[in-house]
Specification:
alpha/beta, Rossmann fold
């Protein structure tokens, strides 16, 4: 099982792929036209600071976007409730009033929405991100959605010529704050390679699982395993309590 941490590494097979973030990047840089990604402490040549959009600043989105800002990334944010953007604006984030405007102004846009309906609306609605997407841009949906919805979002994004990656996360608020999330990604492999340094800022591990829908399916499996584990733990605790009575 080979691991890759750079766009210039050997091609990643369409099979199961994982990597761990062993060293936190300090500043994220994209070359012009989002054709490659490098991580460096300073800009050289024709490299410019990464332009990253982040849609959805809830319990998970806020700490994820905060970690990108702390790493030195150029982040533009949006949330339905504008006041939730204010703490990030105070950290240096830019603000746009619609997902469309965020996507139009950024090289790559991340989305962390509460449910499949919101994820689709923000991506493909009347003022959705797809309206601002174009070739050489990328859209990374880190929301937890079902596979059919993820495929629909991907289709809308790719109709614009942009690339799409689903990347649901395993982890809750604390891992999001600590930058130790696990990303279950699927979709356009070139986009995966390009945003891997950004995933490494927000998480400790990332897995590339092939076609869109595989990441969503794997997240469902993970949730089922965690649910059964929690139920087993409760049953064991209940049994232990009864034995003490």
């Amino acid at each position: 099982m080979a691991a890759s941490s750079s766009f210039f590494a050997a091609p990643i097979p369409n099979a199961y792929h994982s990597s761990s973030a062993l060293q936190r990047p300090q500043l994220c840089l994209f070359s012009k036209r989002f054709s490659s990604v490098t991580i460096s402490a300073s800009s050289k040549g024709d490299e410019v600071s990464a332009s990253i959009g982040f849609l959805g600043l809830g319990i998970m989105g806020t700490p994820m976007a905060t970690n990108l800002l702390k790493a030195g990334c150029d982040v533009t944010v949006w949330n339905r409730t504008k006041s939730k953007c204010d703490p990030l604006i105070s950290l240096g984030a830019k603000y746009k009033s619609t997902p469309e405007e965020v996507a139009a102004s950024c090289d790559v846009t991340f989305a962390m929405l509460a449910d499949p309906e919101s994820a689709f609306e923000v991506a493909a609605g009347p003022q959705g991100a797809a309206k601002g997407m174009s070739a050489v841009k990328g859209y990374v949906d880190v929301s937890t959605v079902d596979a059919p919805t993820s495929k629909q979002i991907g289709e809308r994004i790719k109709e614009t010529g942009a690339m799409f990656l689903e990347a649901p996360v395993s982890g809750s608020k604390k891992p999001a704050e600590d930058g130790t999330l696990i990303f279950l990604t699927a979709g356009d492999q070139p986009l995966y390679e390009k945003v891997s340094p950004l995933l490494d800022i927000m998480g400790k591990s990332r897995f590339y699982l092939g076609d869109v829908g595989n990441g969503a399916a794997m997240k469902l499996v993970v949730n089922m395993i965690m649910g059964r584990s929690h139920k087993l733990s409760l049953n064991l605790l209940t049994a232990a309590h009864r034995n003490q009575d």
